[in-house]
């Protein structure tokens, strides 16, 4: 069973992603000394650099590139509202879309969780025959998620890096941002489809 997945990042990070032809994990990006426009909570990112993984390649969650099983994630809502580490809102945030099978073809060290990966009681699963246990249609893709916030934040995680060629679409909020993204990827060998999807935003 292949499942669509979504990674969010700021457009300011796209040039670096294209230069390296991949998305790096936070841990690897820090080791490489790469600049990054952080849109997440800094304290959670630091915690994920220490939280252990007991499946796939082991290590820590911060050594993996995270994806949600839906666009319009809970974290995007936090970004939309603004938080102490990022106040500029969601308008310049990109959804990088792929699917579980495509990424696993180039990176076999992947796993998924049943809830937000940073939680102590999240189950780490590298048996992808179990991915059907996630209620993607009725819970993870649900527009109103207050009653199952943790379940909506289930994650797919790929060790160290995700190849740019595995990204199939780039979702943006406005046509103006789509035009910016199209200009940035114009000279790239791999050009994902750029789609305007305001429904993926708050």
UniProtKB/TrEMBL annotation:
Residues annotated as binding NAD(+): 7-9, 48
Record keyword Electron transport present: no
DarT domain: residues covered: 3-202
Active-site residues from the entry: 48 (proton acceptor), 155
Superkingdom field: Bacteria
Keywords assigned: DNA-binding, Glycosyltransferase, Nucleotidyltransferase, Toxin-antitoxin system, Transferase
InterPro entries per UniProt: DarT
Catalytic activity: a thymidine in DNA + NAD(+) = an N-(ADP-alpha-D-ribosyl)-thymidine in DNA + nicotinamide + H(+)
Database matches in PROSITE patterns: DART (PS52018)
Family note: Belongs to the DarT ADP-ribosyltransferase family.
UniProt name for this protein: DUF4433 domain-containing protein
Organism: Shewanella electrodiphila
């Amino acid at each position: 069973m292949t499942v669509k997945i979504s990674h969010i990042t700021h457009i300011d990070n796209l040039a670096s992603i294209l230069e390296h032809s991949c998305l790096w994990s936070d841990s690897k990006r820090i080791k490489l000394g790469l600049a990054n426009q952080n849109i997440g909570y800094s304290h959670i990112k630091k915690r994920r650099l220490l939280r252990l993984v007991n499946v796939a390649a082991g290590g820590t969650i911060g050594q993996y590139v995270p994806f949600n099983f839906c666009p319009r994630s809970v974290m995007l809502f936090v970004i939309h509202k603004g938080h102490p580490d990022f106040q500029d809102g969601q308008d310049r945030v990109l959804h990088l879309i792929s699917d579980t099978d495509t990424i696993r073809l180039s990176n076999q060290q992947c796993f998924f969780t049943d809830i937000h990966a940073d939680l102590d009681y999240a189950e780490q699963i590298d048996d992808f025959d179990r991915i059907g246990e996630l209620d993607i249609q009725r819970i993870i893709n649900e527009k109103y998620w207050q009653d199952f916030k943790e379940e909506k934040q289930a994650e797919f995680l790929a060790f160290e890096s995700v190849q740019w060629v595995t990204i199939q679409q780039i979702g943006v909020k406005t046509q103006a941002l789509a035009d910016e993204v199209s200009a940035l990827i114009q000279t790239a060998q791999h050009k994902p489809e750029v789609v305007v999807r305001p429904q993926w935003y708050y």
